[in-house]
Amino acid sequence: MSSLILTYKHNFKKAPIVSLNGEPVLLFNQQQHTLLEVLETKKVNVFSECRNGFCGACKTKVNKGSVRYLTKPLIELKQDECLPCCCVPDTNLDLDLTTDEPSNLYVQHNKSVVFLD
Ligand code: FES
């Protein structure tokens, strides 16, 4: 019986919650999509170009949590940065995206402006 419980706990990990500067925006339960694709379905438009980990255009600061890469990034990243185009959350994740006026405007860390709806 205890081995069944261990197997269950090992195989069923909770879906990570993705937050923007502390504000939860989605439950990441679509493992076949990248973080970038899932953010875009929630109308969070992160600036991107290659969408394959080559250019660094989507580089985003991670406030808290960790990611797992589906393809290895070809650019150097700091410990607290990720490339949403080629990763998925490995834990609950808080990204450095800040709100600005109007309330549907998000500004990506040092880069792009993102409009929600
Ligand atoms: S869009 Fe080029 S590295 Fe993510």
From TrEMBL:
The keyword Translocase belongs to this UniProt entry's keyword annotation: no
Keywords assigned: Ubiquinone
UniProt entry tagged with the keyword Kinase: no
Domain of life, per lineage: Bacteria
2Fe-2S ferredoxin-type domain residues: 16-103
Protein name per Swiss-Prot or TrEMBL: Class I ribonucleotide reductase maintenance protein YfaE
Organism: Shewanella electrodiphila
